[in-house]
Design brief:
The protein is an alpha+beta fold and 248 residues long. It has helices at 2-8, 28-41, 86-103, 128-136, 212-245; strands spanning 11-20, 47-50, 55-58, 66-72, 75-81, 111-123, 126-127, 159-164, 170-177, 187-188, 193-203. It is globular.
C-alpha cells in the first residue's frame, strides 16, 4: 500500500506515540537497556542522540527506511520514514509497544492513549497557503470569504477532528500543515514541504499492557481505510494537482 503512496508524495511516514500519565524513568541503565534491545532487532539504529526534551535512537538519514525512537517525560514515540510496505512501517512500533512497558515500568492504568500518525510530505515552491487554498476551498461556501480585493493568503491550514464510533474513545484528525520559509509573504524555499497528516488516537487504559500491539493493529486497520478512501482523494490528490498547476 505505501508503495503507491510514495508515488504521490516526496516522503511517506508512519509514527507512533504511547502517552502515559506518570513520568517515565530516565535513568542511564533503563534507557540504554531499552535502546540496546531495540537495536538488536533493528541493527541500523545506531545513532544515540540527546536533545533538550528527549533521548533518541535513530538510523542514519541515508538508511531507508529511516527509523527512529524517542523518549520524553511522559511519552514513547517511534517513526518509520519511507517504508517499502505498510507492514514494514508498523514493525518498529509493534516492537516498541512490546518492550516499553517492561523496560519503563508502564502499567495498564498508566496508559493515557496510543496514537498512530500517517504523514505525507509534498515538496512545493511558492506560497504554501495559496496552494492549499486553491486546492481545497474553491466551490465551497468558504470561497465567499476569499472574494476580497487586494488580498494574499497568509494562513490556510485546515484541521478537522472527529470522534469515531459510539464509544467515542477513538479520535481521528485530518490536518494540512504549511511552512512559510524565510521570505514574505509566506514564500517557501525550494524543497519545503506541505504536510498532510491523518492521526488516530485511542484513549483509555488497557487490561494488560500486552494488549497494546492489538490496539496498534486496530488503529492501523481504521487508518489504512481512512487514508485510502478519504485522505488520498480528498487532500493529497487535490494539493498535488495544485502544486503541479503552479498557479499559486
Amino acid at each position: 500500500m505505501s508503495e503507491s503512496y510514495r508515488a504521490l508524495c516526496n516522503d511517506f511516514y508512519v509514527n507512533l506515540k504511547l502517552n502515559v500519565r506518570m513520568e517515565l524513568p530516565r535513568t542511564r541503565e533503563t534507557v540504554l537497556d531499552l535502546f540496546e534491545r531495540v537495536k538488536r532487532q533493528f541493527p541500523h539504529m545506531t545513532g544515540f542522540r540527546k536533545y533538550k526534551d528527549e533521548l533518541a535512537l535513530e538510523s542514519t538519514q541515508s538508511e531507508m527506511p529511516h527509523r527512529w525512537m524517542a523518549l520524553r517525560s511522559t511519552s514513547v514515540r517511534s517513526g518509520v520514514v519511507n517504508p517499502t510496505n505498510v507492514d514494514e512501517g508498523y514493525s518498529l512500533h509493534k516492537h516498541v509497544l512490546e518492550l516499553a512497558p517492561t523496560y519503563l515500568s508502564i502499567s495498564p492504568l498508566d496508559v493515557d492513549y496510543v496514537e498512530l500518525l500517517y504523514g505525507f510530505d509534498l515538496a512545493a515552491n511558492g506560497n504554501h497557503d495559496a496552494i492549499v487554498l486553491d486546492a481545497l476551498i474553491p466551490g465551497s461556501p468558504l470561497a465567499a470569504l476569499l472574494d476580497i480585493p487586494n488580498t494574499s493568503p497568509i494562513d490556510c491550514q485546515p484541521l478537522i477532528g472527529l470522534s469515531l464510533g459510539k464509544r467515542g474513545d477513538i479520535e481521528c484528525y485530518f490536518e494540512v500543515k504549511t511552512r512559510p520559509g524565510n521570505a514574505s509573504p509566506r514564500e517557501s524555499e525550494a524543497g519545503d514541504a506541505i504536510s498532510v497528516y491523518c492521526t488516530l488516537r485511542k484513549f483509555g487504559g488497557v487490561s494488560e499492557t500486552r494488549e497494546l500491539p492489538a490496539v496498534l493493529a486496530k488503529l492501523a486497520k481504521i487508518g489504512e481505510d481512512l487514508v485510502e478512501h478519504r485522505v488520498v482523494p480528498g487532500l493529497i490528490v487535490p494539493i498535488r494537482e495544485a502544486i503541479a498547476s503552479g498557479n499559486a
